[in-house]
Design brief:
With 147 residues, the protein is mainly β. It has one domain (2-146). The chain contains two helices and ten strands; from the N terminus they run αβββββαβββββ. Strands 1, 2, 3, 4, 5, 6, 7, 8, 9 and 10 form a ten-stranded mixed β-sheet that branches. It is globular and about 45 Å long.
Length: 147
Amino acid sequence: MIKYFLYLSLSLLTLKASFAQNIDIQEDIKIDFVCELEKKILKNSEYNYQTFFANDLNEKNLDKFEIDAQQPEKLLINGLSMFLSKNIELDVKVVNKDIVLFKAFDKEKNYSESGIINRKSGELVHEITKNIKSDNFEKDISFYKCS
């Protein structure tokens, strides 16, 4: 449990640092993953950052999660969500030998998706934020183990 919060904290710190440099693709990669959902944290009108484990949810694993990065600034994310698969203009793109970090917003900047995957451990955190401009924003944070 502490591992996940540490990982999430690290991802948020990395995300904050990356806004100073939104694009930092250090190597070309084309990787496919199969990811198993471990747990999900929900924050909405019904739940206040409540944790649900995979066996309590009726959600599928990621059968084909793809990352395609090419220097200096191409990063494509497929299989995680339709929003990211269709979005070729990610706001944040960071790729190095250890991590892949990405973030995208809709045109109104009221919806965002971000993620970070540790390429060595296979841990993936995917965060969806809805109604960003509202006091009643919603978060859906999913934790996966990928191989």
